[in-house]
Amino acid sequence: MSAYRFTVTGRVQGVGYRTFVALCARTHGVKGEVWNSRDGSVIGICEAEDCSAFLAALKLGPGHVQEVSFVEVTPTNPIGFEITKTR
């Protein structure tokens, strides 16, 4: 199982980006969560056997994606994929 914390910068708030991420997660069998950051970015955690296709899809979301960055984190085995509150 691999797990990553991802950050998406650009014009990604107020355009349905978190909903897009949740749909991508379900399509790619990814678990985790996504939220808006107070700095205008969108941040999340993804976990799956292989997160590469999901992470690549994040560049195609609505709005204007400037950059997608990610770092490996310790898996926590979430149940599903959630859209959560701004942090």
Description:
The structure is a single chain. By secondary structure, this protein is α+β, with helices and mostly antiparallel strands. The chain contains 2 helices and 5 strands, in the order E-H-E-E-H-E-E. The chain has helices at residues 17-28, 52-57; strands spanning 2-11, 31-36, 42-48, 64-72, 81-83. The protein has a 5-stranded mixed β-sheet with strand order 4-1-3-2-5, covered by helices on one side. The termini are far apart.
Summarize the structure.
The chain has 87 residues and is of the alpha+beta class. The chain has two helices and five strands; from the N terminus they run E-H-E-E-H-E-E.
Keywords, please?
single chain; 87 residues; 5 strands; five-stranded mixed beta sheet; alpha+beta
